[in-house]
């Protein structure tokens, strides 16, 4: 795999095959490359677009080219990813009801609105009854699956409470409702206890596969270590969960090379489901100061759709979520993501009165109030 700064070839589309370099925006692409690899010599290589899209295995360089596609080339990518989606996972959309269980968090990630350091928000935790009510709602709507997400805590009270809720949900649904947890890094013992109490899947985003970028996004201490994040992902795998991970897209300092490496990381880690989405700034976070140095929201949305499409080609039969952050940047964000290759959506079941407290990023009023239950499959 070429390391950052050693990018030496540029694949583009052969006019004779019906494609033209302008399809991928020659000037813009060169600008992107010279921005990320200043001083690099870029050599050119001709390759037919369909040939590239039909490759069995994409290397880092192929993925960078796909991420930079525009115009006809981009349409071809989306057509292909839609075909691959329909052939491998059909037109079916899986619904997972999302419960934002608590915004109490022991961590201080630089990008997140519920970080410990944000004193401007009221902290909440749902009552047991509220969680069970949401579980009943999910059952009645035939969702088949529930996601319990919260800020990261590993104190005994929290760990026991989640174990208890898992057992209650199992009892209530007769084991019919599958549960995904998204509660951050925990010990092996905790992962095991939650698994035995009824959790089936665990979603832990790696955020970025680039350790140097990870460092820029987190405080430098044991609570926020890239190595510990990797270790936690391994533990989740070892303790028998279906494993989900993902990254944020369009972060400050992030390059197309980073995103290509992210997709390869996911592919190489035997992941069952992926939840990735655009980074969205939040005023009360340290990363907000870089808001003028990032791609526009439109570009971040488009980049997210490309990531979904390319991942679908790389991993045809996994579950890929159309995430809330996509919906936040585009009114039809989730629907577009489903067409592009995603096959899971997570309607929000959190009681409305708590939603304002769980703002990981800036969000539109309409998204905040969304009931989530009116959505229908494709
Ligand atoms: N505390 C748990 C789960 C809740 S946070 C954890 O961190 O794993 C869930 C996800 O929200 C994070 O993994 C991160 O990828 C995403 N997130 C946080 N802040 C964000 C922001 N500003 N923009 C987009 N996604 C964000
Ligand atoms: Fe806490 Fe998760 Fe937000 Fe980090 S991303 S501050 S762990 S809720």
Please describe what this structure looks like:
- It is a single chain.
- It is globular, with a radius of gyration of 21 Å.
- The protein has helices at 26-36, 49-53, 60-67, 71-89, 128-140, 156-173, 188-196, 211-217, 226-238, 256-268, 297-314, 324-329, 333-340, 352-355, 365-369; strands spanning 9-12, 43-46, 94-95, 97-102, 145-150, 178-182, 199-203, 242-245, 248-249, 273-274, 277-278, 319-322, 344-345.
- The chain has 378 residues and is of the alpha/beta class.
- Helix 7 (188-196) links the parallel strand 6 (178-182) and strand 7.
- Helix 4 (71-89) crosses helix 11 (297-314), helix 5 runs parallel beside helix 6 and helix 11 (297-314) packs parallel to helix 13 (333-340).
- Residues 1-31, 37-46 and 372-378 have low confidence and may be disordered.
- A nine-stranded parallel sheet has the order 3-13-12-10-8-7-6-5-4. Strands 1-2 form a two-stranded parallel ribbon.
- The chain folds into two domains: 9-68, no CATH class; 94-369, Aldolase class I (TIM Barrel).
- The chain binds S-adenosyl-L-homocysteine and iron/sulfur cluster.
- S-adenosyl-L-homocysteine is lined by residues 111-112, 149, 151-152, 182, 184, 204-205, 207, 248, 277, 279-280, 282, 325, 360-361.
Keywords:
two-stranded parallel sheet, 9-stranded parallel β-sheet, 15 helices, binds S-adenosyl-L-homocysteine, 378 residues, disordered C terminus, 13% strand, binds iron/sulfur cluster, globular, single chain, TIM Barrel, alpha/beta, 2 domains
């Amino acid at each position: 795999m070429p390391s950052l700064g050693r990018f030496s070839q540029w694949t583009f589309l052969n006019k004779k095959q019906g494609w033209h370099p302008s399809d991928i925006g020659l000037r813009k692409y060169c600008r992107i490359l010279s921005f990320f690899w200043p001083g690099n010599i870029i050599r050119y290589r001709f390759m037919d677009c369909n040939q590239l899209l039909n490759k069995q295995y994409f290397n880092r360089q192929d993925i960078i080219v796909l991420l930079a596609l525009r115009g006809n080339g981009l349409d071809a990518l989306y057509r292909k990813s839609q075909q691959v989606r329909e052939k491998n996972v059909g037109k079916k959309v899986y619904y997972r009801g999302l419960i934002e269980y608590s915004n109490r968090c022991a961590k201080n990630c630089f990008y997140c609105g519920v970080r410990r350091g944000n004193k401007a928000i009221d902290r909440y935790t749902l009552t047991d009854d509220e969680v069970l009510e949401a579980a009943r709602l999910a059952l009645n709507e035939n969702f088949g699956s529930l996601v319990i997400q919260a800020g990261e805590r590993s104190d005994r009270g929290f760990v026991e409470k989640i174990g208890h809720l898992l057992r209650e949900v199992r009892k209530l649904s007769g084991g019919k409702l599958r549960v995904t947890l998204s509660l951050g890094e925990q010990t092996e013992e905790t992962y095991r206890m939650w698994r035995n109490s009824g959790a089936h899947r665990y979603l832990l985003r790696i955020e970025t596969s680039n350790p140097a970028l990870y460092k820029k996004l987190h405080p430098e201490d044991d609570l926020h270590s890239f190595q510990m994040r990797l270790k936690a992902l391994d533990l989740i795998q070892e303790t028998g969960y279906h494993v989900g991970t993902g990254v944020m897209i369009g972060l400050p300092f992030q390059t197309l090379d980073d995103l290509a490496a992210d997709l390869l990381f996911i592919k190489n880690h035997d992941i069952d489901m992926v939840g990735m989405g655009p980074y969205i700034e939040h005023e009360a976070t340290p990363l907000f100061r870089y808001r003028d140095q990032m791609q526009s929201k439109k570009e971040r949305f488009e980049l997210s759709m490309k990531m979904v499409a390319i991942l679908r080609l790389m991993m045809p039969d996994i579950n890929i979520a159309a995430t809330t952050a996509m919906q936040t940047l585009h009114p039809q964000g989730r629907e577009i993501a489903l067409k592009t290759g995603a096959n899971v959506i997570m309607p929000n079941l959190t009681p409305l009165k708590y939603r304002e407290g769980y703002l990981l990023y800036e969000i539109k009023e309409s998204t905040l109030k969304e009931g989530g239950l009116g959505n229908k499959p494709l």
